[in-house]
Amino acid sequence: MTAPSQELRSSRTDGHGPAVRLDAVSKVYGRELLALDRVSLSVGRAEFVCLLGASGCGKSTLLNLVAGLDHATAGDIDTQGGRVAMMFQEPALFPWLTVSANIELALRVTSKGRSTTKKERRERAAELLEIVHLSGFGGKRPHELSGGMRQRVALARSLAQEADVLLMDEPFGALDAMTRDLLHDQLERIWRERRLTVLFVTHNVREAVRLGDRVVLLSSRPGTVIHDFPVDLPRPRRTDSAEVAELTTTITDRLRQEVLRHAKPARQPVGAASRGDG
Ligand SMILES: Nc1ncnc2c1ncn2[C@@H]1O[C@H](COP(=O)(O)OP(=O)(O)OP(=O)(O)O)[C@@H](O)[C@H]1O
């Protein structure tokens, strides 16, 4: 496995061990659907790792296992006791609650065991909305916001959980390119300021290169790590820069090879001789 980018390495491997570690993790659904096959992966503290792979290769499965939403069939997962929050493509806000109340609800769940007043939660929600540049929108209902704004509320709600590890499952997949670009900038700023560890699933190679310290490629099902690309490019990066485009091409080629390798047997006409080039 490749090390994180040089620029950030010292602050990320400071002797406390990885924030997330998967050791030979496998997942079988039902009796025989092998979704993940002995996946080993380490994510350093405050590291941003993007996960790429063909559709159905087990990316969401992997996140669910790390989040503790499901159990691995074999192998070990260690998050060092850190708090883990998850964010999905759909913001899943309660439509009948205001934006602020959606976040306050998360704060109430988080503050179980220590008492917080409604006023404290409201103030904290306002702070979180400021972090995602939505000050003044606390009194709106979700339907009054754009898709990008709703995702920022969902991000604020994740931050309300005071997580050390943020798991993101295609969080910007449904947004237009311009909105996505703005959210990349915001997420990068928040990640740096709060020293979050991020594991980010995407289908978009360019997005992975824009954001990641590393881009980890999973094979087609069953998912297993086939390549770990360090992204040694200075930040902030521009999605349309030549450097991002170059690495995007390299990774896309590797991903394409993997998808073709997997698709090949099914595409060959019955009786066709194997050319042995797979
Ligand atoms: N709860 C489940 N029960 C049975 N099979 C499942 C379950 N969840 C996922 N699978 C199967 O496991 C495999 C991996 O699914 P998963 O959703 O993790 O892939 P993915 O890489 O996230 O896909 P995509 O990129 O399309 O979102 C798929 O074949 C899927 O059909």
Automatic annotation (TrEMBL):
Residues 20-245 form the ABC transporter domain. InterPro entries: AAA+_ATPase (IPR003593), ABC_transporter-like_ATP-bd (IPR003439), ABC_transporter-like_CS (IPR017871), ABC_transporter_ATP-bind (IPR050166), P-loop_NTPase (IPR027417). It comes from the Bacteria. Pfam families: ABC_tran (PF00005). GO terms for molecular function: ATP binding; ATP hydrolysis activity. Keywords: ATP-binding, Nucleotide-binding, Transport. This is NitT/TauT family transport system ATP-binding protein. It comes from Sphaerisporangium siamense.
